[in-house]
Design brief:
By secondary structure, this protein is of the alpha+beta class. The chain is built from 12 helices and 13 strands. The two termini are 44 Å apart.
Length: 454
């Protein structure tokens, strides 16, 4: 029968020596006393040892702690809560009671769930809490181990997050038709220039149809970005109502602001270092990169020669989310592929008949594509919600912010603390308490600061 390790109060006979137990009352020796005894043994006159300056500092700092039972008993006399418990009639042996007094020291009796062995732990007074935490957690010999570490600033900054990032999935509202919402992002740079002098790809994706336009570029400056956006997308497909980009300088600049204002397009910028907010184009970037890798030469410098065929294959392939190809949703007809020897054709007596047929087909496509997309969005949201929390912070809360980008192994994972100055859940504006600079971030990159009140 399987039982959790946390429910095992009995010792493992295969890995632990036998202990003669004469009675059910256990002797308690504080870990600090064990350390002190070990230290006294090492200082024996018959033993010569060499120690570095760091060892001497650690030892002297450790010896400053006094956790003797006499002192613990004395400090317990100054704690109102402990005095209240001590004044009750307590048994002197471990039974079904919660507390026991031994050697004039109050202990709490603990029994693990579904276990038979009982343990005694010393009740620490309020006056000794800071010392105990400093010795058994903050001190170098304790190495910041322990279960409850949320109030430790170093642990909050350096520890690896073992759970899913906080925050629920917020799907972007599905648009009503093509060019209602598009997203732009850069792929690259490649390690070296291609034979055509390109290192970047500007990827533009329509949210409704999933249709992709990819423009190879030698750089990702604001001028190159704006020029490609106008010439390769707007002049061919029209003006989009909304554009989603990240906060990169190639999108967040005066030229792009003036361009979108002139076109009447609403420019939306995602939270910093949160690519999930622009997930559609990010997913495509991860999709077409392996396809290019299978095609370019050994010198890796002709990848842009295969970019157009890869994009064509993507746009003419059926999407599992919508059930149609991006080409079909964008243009209202099936693409004529090289293997379509006898493509389906329609005969129309008047041009208006073609228009009526196109409107009818597009309405059917839109209805089915919308139903399937909303269904997949709801499924993804439910799966994501199972293993994630959704904390909501308030203005003036202190938080740590996840360090973005690449970092060295021994560098802190979170910086701060910062103060929340604006709340638009799941996005927040945080302010550096030293420089007073502010930035907008996503809830998954934040961690609440728990302050010690000792």
């Amino acid at each position: 029968m399987y039982r959790k390790g946390s429910h095992h109060g009995d010792a493992d006979g295969m890995s632990r020596p036998d202990i003669d137990v004469h009675h059910n009352q256990l002797n308690v020796t504080a870990r600090s006393m064990t350390k002190i005894n070990q230290h006294q043994l090492t200082n024996n006159d018959n033993v010569k040892s060499k120690s570095t300056n760091n060892d001497e500092k650690l030892t002297s700092k450790h010896m400053a702690f006094n956790f003797s039972l006499e002192r613990i008993s004395k400090e317990q006399q100054h704690d109102p809560e402990i005095l209240r418990i001590r004044h009750q009639r307590l048994p002197k042996k471990i039974d079904n009671k919660d507390y026991v007094i031994e050697n004039d020291v109050l202990h709490k009796v603990i029994q693990l769930p579904r276990a038979y062995t009982k343990f005694k732990v010393v009740c620490i007074s309020v006056t000794m809490k800071k010392e105990v935490i400093s010795c058994y957690h903050d001190h170098p010999t304790a190495a910041h181990f322990g279960v409850n570490r949320t109030s430790c600033e170093k642990c909050a900054k350096f520890n690896i997050r073992r759970t899913a990032p906080p925050g629920h999935l917020h799907a972007i509202e599905y648009p009503q038709g093509p060019l209602e919402l598009i997203s732009m992002d850069f792929w690259g740079p490649k390690p070296q220039y291609s034979i055509n002098g390109n290192r970047y790809v500007l990827v533009i994706t329509d949210y409704y149809t999933k249709y992709v336009v990819a423009c190879p570029l030698p750089n990702n400056t604001a001028t190159s970005t704006a020029k490609s956006f106008v010439e390769q997308f707007i002049f061919k497909f029209g003006i989009p109502r909304r554009v989603v980009t990240d906060q990169g300088v190639h999108f967040n600049n005066e030229l792009m602001q003036n361009l979108t204002m002139l076109l009447g397009t609403n420019h939306i910028q995602t939270s910093a270092y949160h690519p999930q907010s622009n997930g559609l184009v990010e997913i495509f970037n991860a999709t077409f990169h392996p396809q290019l890798s299978k095609l370019y030469n050994a010198e890796l410098n002709d990848w842009d020669e295969y970019l157009a065929p890869v994009i064509y294959a993507y746009n003419t392939g059926e999407q599992s989310t919508t059930g149609y190809s991006p080409f079909q949703l964008m243009f209202g007809r099936h693409p004529i592929l090289p293997l379509n020897h006898t493509p389906a054709t329609f005969n129309f007596n008047r041009p208006n008949d073609y228009w009526m047929k196109l409107i009818k087909c597009m309405n059917i496509y839109r209805q089915i594509a919308r139903q399937k997309t909303l269904f997949h969005q709801q499924q993804s949201k439910q799966r994501f919600k199972k293993n994630s929390q959704n904390p909501q912070y308030e203005i003036n809360d202190l938080v740590f912010y996840k360090v973005p980008g690449h970092r060295a192994k021994l560098e802190e994972r979170f910086s701060g603390p910062y103060t929340i100055v604006n709340k638009q859940h799941p996005s927040y504006t945080i302010q550096n308490n030293d420089s007073l600079t502010s930035k907008r971030v996503y809830v998954s990159d934040l961690k609440l600061v728990y302050q010690r009140h000792l």
